[in-house]
Design a protein that fits this description.
The protein is mainly beta and 71 residues long. It is 0% helix and 55% strand. The protein has no helices and seven strands.
Length: 71
C-alpha cells in the first residue's frame, strides 16, 4: 500500500491555469484536500488533517472526487 500527502493532476492547456476542488470521500471526516499550486497544464493538491491542518496521507484505495475549471 502506498500513501502520499500530495498529488499532481495533469490537464489540457488552459489560458491561465486550473482551479481544482477535491474531496476524499473515504476519509471525509479526517482530511481535506486543498490546491497548493497550478500551471497552465496541471494542478497540485495537498491533503491535510482537519483537526491539525498539517500534511496527512491519502491511502491507496481512497475514493477521491475532483472538480476542475480552466481559467
Amino acid at each position: 500500500t502506498t500513501t502520499s500527502s500530495t498529488g499532481v493532476l495533469t490537464f489540457p492547456t488552459a489560458p491561465n491555469g486550473w482551479v481544482v476542488q477535491g474531496w476524499d470521500i473515504t476519509q471525509g471526516t479526517a482530511v481535506f484536500l486543498q490546491q497548493t499550486a497550478f500551471t497552465t497544464t496541471s494542478a497540485t493538491i495537498g491533503c491535510f488533517g482537519i483537526t491539525t491542518g498539517t500534511s496527512a496521507n491519502l491511502n491507496a484505495g481512497d475514493v477521491i472526487i475532483f472538480s476542475a475549471t480552466a481559467f
